[in-house]
Write a structure and sequence with these properties.
The complex is a heterodimer of chains A (646) and B (230).
Chain A: E1 6-11, E2 15-22, E3 25-28, E4 38-39, E5 41-44, E6 56-58, H1 60-68, E7 73-75, H2 85-92, E8 98-99, E9 111-113, E10 116-118, H3 120-139, E11 145-150, H4 156-168, E12 172-178, H5 179-187, E13 195-202, E14 207-215, E15 218-227, H6 232-251, H7 259-275, E16 281-287, E17 293-299, H8 300-312, H9 315-325, E18 334-338, H10 345-354, H11 373-386, E19 396-398, E20 405-408, E21 414-418, E22 426-432, E23 442-448, E24 458-466, E25 478-484, E26 490-496, E27 504-509, H12 515-520, H13 533-554, H14 566-583, H15 588-601, H16 603-618
Parallel strand pairs in A: 1-11, 11-12, 13-18, 15-19
Antiparallel strand pairs in A: 1-2, 2-3, 2-4, 5-6, 5-7, 8-9, 9-10, 13-14, 14-15, 16-17, 20-21, 20-23, 22-25, 23-24, 24-27, 25-26
Helix pairs in contact in A: 3-4, 5-11, 6-7, 13-14, 13-15, 14-15
Chain B: H1 41-44, H2 55-69, H3 79-100, H4 102-112, H5 137-156, H6 161-194, H7 197-228
Helix pairs in contact in B: 2-3, 3-4, 4-7, 5-6, 5-7, 6-7
Chain lengths: 646, 230
Amino acid sequence: MAEAHVVGIDLGTTNSLVAYMEGSKPVVIPGVDGSNLVPSVVALDPLPAGGGRPTVTVGNSARKVLIETPERVIYSVKRLMGRGLEEVKKELQFFQFRLADDIEEGEVPRIQLGELRFTPPEISAYILRQLKRNAERFFGAPVKQAVITVPAYFNDAQRQATKDAGRMAGLDVLRLVNEPTAAALAYGLDRTQAETIAVYDLGGGTFDISILKLQDGIFEVQSTNGDTHLGGDDIDNLLVAIALDEIRAGHGIDLAAHHDAVQALRKAAIDAKIRLSTEQSARFDFELPDGSRYQREIPRTVFESVIAPVLARTAGPCKQAMADAGITADKIDEVVLVGGSSRIPAVRKLVDDLFHLSARGKKPHTELNPDEVVALGAAVQADILDGASAATEEMLLLDVTPLSLGIEALGGTVARIIQRNSTIPASATEFFTTGVDGQTNVAIHVLQGERELATDCRSLARFDLKGIPPMSAGLPRIEVKFLIDADGILHVSAREQRSGKAAEIEVKPTYGLTDEQVESMILDSFDHAEDDFSKRLLIETRNEAETILTAVERAPQNPAWNNLSAEEQLTIKAAKDKLITVKQSENTQAIAEATVALDTATRRFAELMMDAAVSSAIRGKTMNEAGEELSEPVTAPHEFAPAEFK
Amino acid sequence: MLKVLDSAVPIACWSCSIGHNDFTLFCPHCSKIQPPPGGDYFSVFGLQPRLNLDLAALEQEFHRLSRKLHPDRFARAGEHEKEWSLADTALINDAYRTLKDPLRRTEYLLRLVGADSGEKAVGAARKDVSRVPADLLEEVFELNMQIEEARQAKQAGDHDAESQASLEEAQQKFVALLDAVDSDLRVSWTVWDNGDEAARKAEQKKMVALLDRRRYLSNLVRDIKEVLGE
């Protein structure tokens, strides 16, 4: 084993995970609360009275703030990564967050969080830093290098934004791996015979389909397709919209105006959705602000007809991917299901039909937890890059670029220079010249997408070739090399052939941060390697112990406390006393263990408290009465995803 | 297209300083990775320019080289080796993508021998210039009218079963013509592969014409498919 671990990170819309290779097996690293999933929720704590940097909370503990002070919390930030101002504005119709009011055209949009403003990569960096810390606590050693997964259909700007986030979190991002490909790696560990597999990945916010050929440890992606705006969120939005309509019609209450009530309604909708994956019917029972109840039985058949249009949108990309790979459904040997939404029976039925599975006596692969499989695959890729392990010595991933690369030609059309589904790294060389005598600059507009017109494709960047020796029009011959690297990110270099001079290129990325901006956003300096790591770990662990102890001290004041049995109260007290004693020691490991023990002991209390909080929120009260921060186990995916208001 | 950094290729290995010919991805003496070599896509895989290729052997060689060159294998290497691994892998990927596809391979070879159907326009201004094949002039004229009518009818929401049937018939016919072009091309490959200089020259002309015809036909088939809603 190498002295430093390279970890694999699944930076998800709803939940994020970190995993590593334990010998020849990838395993997920749990957080201090024992949960494998870290909700992708970031909260800004109140600013310290004496000034200084504010504390940022990530994960389960940040979710509590969502109900108390929604203006200090952000979730689903993955949807905003690498996007321009107009796109973000469109997204924000469905979110409660606000854009900063001083954004200028062409700038990376910033989100107002309490008193401060953050770009989407900065928010993601906080999530990554939390995962990094979880891994460091687990190993008892610093973690500096990582592989991070992205949806296969992410474009250049979204990939760059993800890489920037890694750098801000103090991580050297060795590789970005496509999520469906990572899933194939997680499944493909023991395979040796040649076969073709399809990975169908329906997550919280994105859909990907990838077709791969596996042969002697080489995972060669044949084609990929998808939709970066299709997932479980869309199903939740439909259920919430129906409930809002029915509540308006049946009770005369317009719930859409009550953000907190919509959040609670959304949670109920997600619960119903999850139950419908195993049961034939689910009951919606929801207390309204006026004390009356909205009750409704949802049979699975009704649920399935409601979500059919959403699921149908995954069929087109699947067919396109098969066509691009030059194969038919019958040639696909295995299908792997990934993403929380792939648990829905109707999704499985659709996949079965699309790939003729049961007709051929086959079943899709669901053995690995669909919420964890991508992180496990990222850990496998991390191990491949580490290069020191026999388990992955023979494995190699050859991925493709999901979108064609083109340059804007005369008349606003697009000349394609690298086709979609080309194996990466891929390159193309083009020659440019001048149109006017003595011209010393040439502008090139690079685009990504499949449409014929530049305005319909996504603008990647404008390159300005400078310093061309003055010559007659048409005489200079500027060789421009476009290279898409193994992360799917574009690099450009240029040379004037007649003079042999390297042309100077000025790049204006259409969406994205400059190097200097990223540098200035690197999270607090105490994360740097030269600091005394174990000392920092001890302080952090003590702080966490302190937080939970404060909360438990106040617990008896909470009405929910009385609902616990005397025995449960005693168990909590014993765990609390143990932690108070251990906290004085220098033993980081023991403090962490005692913290987990106390957290586990108080789990039922936390649930009782959260239940009380949710119903009191609906009655218009605040969470302040409900008690202090305690984590609860994650049960639902995308618990706090946005509602769609029409 | 192919003159990638040709003047930058060192004759001596950067690592062991022993000279080597510049068409190699690895130093024959110390096995260290080298900057992208000059030479054509065929030479990357140790092949002579040929149109009939053993695709299974090509894939095997592609996989063998990928295992050695891919950036994944150089994650802990020095900056230069990382850079060369990226450039070399891009080169073998570009080469493999071009050679494994029969049409791209044919176009590439014709360009390599200087027989492509006309100088590519410089910069972004290039366009697929395809002429109507003379023997199809009349038929194509009629078909284009039909496609246009069907497009308008589709926009207006009309459905004309008769025009649909006639378009389907046309589609079948033009797909058959495409297949004919493909089999003509395959014959030409063998002639070119086995021919002397003069025979090759004659065959190159033929193939340029066949590719032009193919491009035209496939655009036509695409248009029919589109209007038929396939």
